[in-house]
Design brief:
Blueprint (H helix, E strand, L loop, with lengths): L2 H19 L4 H23 L1 H11 L4 H41 L8
Pfam families: DUF2304
Protein name: DUF2304 domain-containing protein
Keywords: Membrane, Transmembrane, Transmembrane helix
Length: 113
């Protein structure tokens, strides 16, 4: 097993555990922002010095730097997709609770016949 395979598996499992355990705290939201900034800085560096991505890719057992970037984008896509799904699931639950609350507040007792 290459280093990149181990690294990708660990990254995906870490993101999964992170998203499922601590996505509501302010600290976890801050780490997401820090991770995004690091990802953007790494992307800018890869654009300015593309040969360095090939060197890092070879060190990790990947043939080309473009393949390494593709793997990083796959992990980022999985993180974004799962994060968005969980966020929408939470919003759906909040809307359902709000609808129940409004319905109960406006409910009237049935009139006797």
């Amino acid at each position: 097993m290459n280093w990149i395979q181990v690294l990708l598996i660990v990254a995906i499992l870490t993101l999964l555990v992170y998203l499922l355990r601590s996505r509501r705290s302010a600290q976890s939201r801050a780490w997401v922002k820090v991770g995004y900034v690091v990802f953007v800085l790494a992307a800018i560096y890869a654009i300015v010095r593309p040969n360095d991505t090939t060197v890092v890719a070879n060190w990790l057992g990947v043939d080309r730097g473009a393949d390494l970037l593709e793997y990083a984008l796959i992990v980022a896509f999985l993180f974004t997709t799962l994060s968005t799904y969980l966020r929408f699931k939470d919003l759906e639950l909040k809307y359902a609770q709000l609808a129940r609350s409004v319905a109960l507040e406006g409910a009237r007792a049935p009139h006797p016949r």
